[in-house]
Amino acid sequence: MNARHDDMSLVEQDFAPELTDALSGWRERGRLSNEAVRALRTRRRRAAAAGVSSGAAALLLAIGLPHLRLPPPSDQTASLRTGRGETRAVRLPDGTTLRLDGGTQLTVRYTATAREATLAGGAAFFDVMHDAGRPFTVRAGDGAVRVLGTAFYVDRTAGRMDLAVYRGAVRLAGRGDARGRWVPAGWRGHVVHGHASPAARFEARADDLRQGWLDVDTLRLGDLVTILNRRAGPAIEPPPAPLADLPISGRFRTDDAQSLLVSLGMSYDFSVTDEGGVLVLSQK
Fold it and tell me: CATH classification of 8-25+73-201, choosing from 3.40.50.12780, 3.90.550.10, 2.60.120.1440, 2.60.120.10?
C-alpha cells in the first residue's frame, strides 16, 4: 500500500504493510498476559491491606514477581520507499510517526535498547515518541541525529545531511566529529564532509513541509535540483560544475520547479531552458 497523505493526522490510519509485518509483534512482547495482570492486582491489594504505600507496593511487586519479567524483543527491521512525487505517512508501533518525501529510501530497526533509522536517500519528517530507555538515531551519510523524543526533518543529498528541528532538541554529529552539537527547536544545521555546522535559526513552521516550502541555508544548487527532482513535475538535468556548487539560501515554494529556478536564475545569473520536457540549467 503506497498511501499518499499530506496530513500527518492521517498516519493513525496508515500502517505500511512491511512495518506491520516486521514490527507488529513489538507491542505484544511488551504486554502482560491476563493472568499476570490479575496477579499484579492481587499482590497490590494485599500490600495495601498490610499498610504498604503504593510506591513501596509497586517496588515489592517488581521484586516479588520475577517470573513476570518480559524477554527483550528480537531485532526487527523494515524498509520503506517512495517514488518520485509520492509522499507516505507511517506510524510505528511505539507511536513514532514518519512522513517520507518523494524519492526516499528509509530503513527502520528496533531493538530492546535502541531505535534506529537509516536514510539512504531523500528526506523524512520524524515525530519521535519519547522513550528514555531507547534513544532514536537517524543516520544519513556521514551525519547522525540522536534524540529521545522530538520532531525534526532530515534531508540527505550527495555529500550532505540537512537537519531542521521543530520540537525539542537533538544531537547532531558528523562522522569526523569528536562531539556532537545540540540543536534546539527553531534551529537547523547540516553535516558536510563528515562535520556538523554551527546551528542557525529559522522559522520553524511544520506546515511548511506539507505545503511545499523549503527553507535552506547555503545549499548547493546541485542539491536543490536533487530535492526538486523528487517531486512531481518536469525532470531537471543536474547542473554542470561549477554551477552545481553555487550556494543557495532562502525560503522557497517547491511545487513549481520551473518558476522557482527561473526566479533563482535571475538572482544568481543562470538560465533555465525547457529541452523536450527536461529543464536544463546553464551559466549565463
Answer: 2.60.120.1440
